[in-house]
Amino acid sequence: MMEGTSLVLPIVLLLLQCSPSAPVTVSTNRHKVEVEESKDAVLSCMFRTEVDPSPRIEWKKKGKEVSFVYFEGHFKAPYEGRATIDGATVTLHRVTQEDAGEYRCEISAPQDSITLGETNVTLKVLVPPNTPSCEIPSAAVTGSAVHLRCRDEQSIPPATYSWFKNSQPISPPRLTNATYLVDSHTGVLEFKAVAKDDSGHYSCLATNGVGKPKMCEGKHMTIEDVNVMAVVVTVVVLCLVVLVCGCGGLLLHRNGFFSQHRGRSNVNYVPPPQEPQDFKHTQSFML
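Above: the chain sequence. Below: its structure as C-alpha cells.
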C-alpha cells in the first residue's frame, strides 16, 4: 500500500509541473465606449499574469503619433488631474471632443513566458445639438421656387431636422407630385412653386438623440402675388424708350448729322509755337 502511494505522488507532481500555465492575458468588457460631452468615460482593462505579481501598466492613445496617457504610475498631460485608475481601468473625467479616439491598454510582465498583452478601447464623445442656424426668406413671389435651410455643424452624431409652420409640424409629403419636399438629413425645406397659402411663421428643430433638441428662432415668410399691371406698364415704357431712341438716331443719320461732325475741321485749332531761330545778319548798319 505504501509502495503504491509512493509511486503516485511523484507522478502527480510531474503532471503539475508539466501542465501549461496561463501567460499574461489582457481584456476589456467594452471595446467601444460612447459618452456625452462633459461626462465621465470608463475605459476598462482587466489582466491576469502567469507569475509576475507586479506587472507594468501603460495606457496610450493612438493618433498621428502615439502618446502616453498613463506611464510609470502617473498620468501625462492633458490627462493629469482629471483621470483616475483602478487596477488597470482608467476613468476620464469631464471628457471633451479632444478625448475622442482609440486607446490601448498594455500590460508588461517580464517574469511571464509571454511578457506583453494589450487590448484596445475606442472612445466616441457625443455632442448634443446646438441652436441651428436657419435661412428663411422674409418674402417671395407666388409661383417661384423657395428653399428654407436649417443646419447644426457641431452635433455628434449629426442632427436630423424637422420643420414647423405656425408651430405645427410639417410632415414629409407622401405624394410624388407634392408642392414641397423635406429633407430631414440636410435640413432643407423646398417649395417647388410657392402659393399664398404658404405664408406663415417657419421654424426648425434639430435633434440627435443626445441631450435636448434645439430650435432656431423662427421667421415669418410672406408670399405676394405678382403685380401683372406693373410688369406690363414697365415693359411698355421700356419699349417706347427703345423705339424713340431708335427713331431719333435714324433721323439724325438721314440728315447727315453724324457725317457733318466727322468732316468738320477744327476752327479753333492753334498751331504750336515755333522754337526761335538763330538771328541772321541781313543788313549792314552805317554809323
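The CA atoms of residues 128 and 210 lie 5 Å apart.
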